[in-house]
C-alpha cells in the first residue's frame, strides 16, 4: 500500500547493478535460451545486518549507481557529511566504495536528480531529473559526465518532459523514461531513445502512462518498461511490458503479471533488475490490497515464475549473490513466509531479502520475523516517510539510498552500506 503519492522513481540504480552483476563472480549464468529454462540456483550469500562506515546526506537520495570503485548518488540533497566534515554536493555526489568517504566529484546541478545510469564501458555517467543547468552550462533534465575526470560532456538532448524517471544505456543508445512529450521537437509518449551525441532516434513505443523503470534484456534484444501505463503500442500491457530494443515494436509478453483493477486501485512497477536469467520487478500499489510486492518472469516470453504479495510498496529491487534484496515499507508478508501485519499501528520492515527462485523471504537477520524493530532496518525519514528508495552493489556490498534518517535505530541519513 502506498502511503503518499510520490513523483520520483528509481530505475537506474537497479539497472546499473544488474549490468554489473552479470559479470560478478559467484552468480548464476544466464540460460542459453534467454530464460526459457529454469534459473540456475545460487547459494544465498547474505550481506551483514550491521552497516559499515559511509558518508551521509542532508536530504533524500533517489538513485545510486556503481563503477570503478565509486558509488554515485543523486537526489534532493545538497551536502554530504563524513566523520564530522561537511562537503557541498548539489544533488549529485560520489563516495568511495572501499572507505565510504566522498570523492572529489562535485558537479553543481541546480535541481533534483531522479535517475542515474552508466555506459556499458563505465566511462560515462548519465543523470536525469528536474534541472536546467550544471554549473554555468545549460542542461535540461539530463546530462552526462566522464567518470575518469568528472567533467560535464557535450551530451545535451533537447527533451520536453514533465519529469524524467529512468535511464538505460547501451553502446549505441540512451533510453529515457518518464512523462516525455517531445525530443528534438519530435513527439514521443513517455519513452524515447537518443544517440550518444544526444540526437533523437526513431525508437518510439506508444504508452498511455508514465515510465518509472527501464532494463535492457540480458541478450540485448529488447528492453523492459515498468510504470503506470495500461497499454503499449495499442495492446494491453498493465504496468509492465517488453519492446524491441531497435524498433520499439512490442515483443512477446504475457499481460497480467501486474493486476488490472476496475475499482480505482492501481499498481505500478517502480523497479527492475536481473540475475542474468530471470527478470525481477518491484511494484507500488495505491488502494486497499493493491499489488505492492515483487515478481519474477522469463525475459523471452514474459511468463510469470513467481509472485510475492507482501503488502507495503516496493521502491527498489536488486540481485546480489543468490539474494533478491528489496527496499520497501512492507508491513504484512504472511503470504511470503514472513511476518503478518504488526499491531498496534503500522510497523513496516523496510529492508528485506527474498529467495530469487521462489520469492519467499530469507532469514536476513531478523528482517523476516514478527517483531516491531527488525535488523537490518531504517526509519521512514523525511519527505514521504517511506525509507529506502535505491539499491546498488559493487558485487560484494549492498549500498542503500533513500529518505531515512536512521539505520538500525542509529542516526544515519540518506546512505548506508552493508558488507558480505
Helix/strand layout:
Elements: H1 12-21, E1 56-57, E2 61-67, E3 70-75, E4 79-82, E5 85-88, E6 92-96, E7 112-118, E8 124-130, E9 133-134, E10 137-138, E11 142-146, E12 159-169, E13 174-183, E14 186-187, E15 191-194, E16 211-216, E17 222-227, E18 231-232, E19 235-236, E20 240-244, E21 266-274, E22 279-286, E23 294-297, E24 304-308, E25 314-320, E26 323-330, E27 349-354, E28 388-393, E29 397-402, E30 406-407, E31 410-411, E32 415-419
Antiparallel strand pairs: 1-4, 2-3, 3-6, 4-5, 7-8, 8-11, 9-10, 12-13, 13-14, 13-15, 16-17, 17-20, 18-19, 21-22, 22-23, 23-24, 25-26, 26-27, 28-29, 29-32, 30-31
Short descriptors:
mainly beta, four-stranded antiparallel β-sheet, single chain, Methylamine Dehydrogenase, Chain H
Molecular shape: globular
What do we call the CATH homologous superfamily?
YVTN repeat-like/Quinoprotein amine dehydrogenase
The helix content, as a percent range, equals under 10%
Give me the CATH fold name. Methylamine Dehydrogenase, Chain H
What value does the Rg take, in angstroms? Answer: 19 Å
Mind explaining what this structure looks like?
Helix content is 2%, strand content 40%. It has one domain (12-30, 60-419): YVTN repeat-like/Quinoprotein amine dehydrogenase (Methylamine Dehydrogenase, Chain H), CATH 2.130.10. The strands form 11 sheets. Strands 12, 13, 14 and 15 form a 4-stranded antiparallel beta sheet that branches. Strands 21-22-23-24 form a 4-stranded antiparallel beta sheet. Strands 1-4-5 form a 3-stranded antiparallel beta sheet, with no helix packed on it. Strand 2 (61-67) and strand 3 form a beta hairpin. It is globular. The protein is built from 1 helix and 32 strands. The protein is mainly beta.
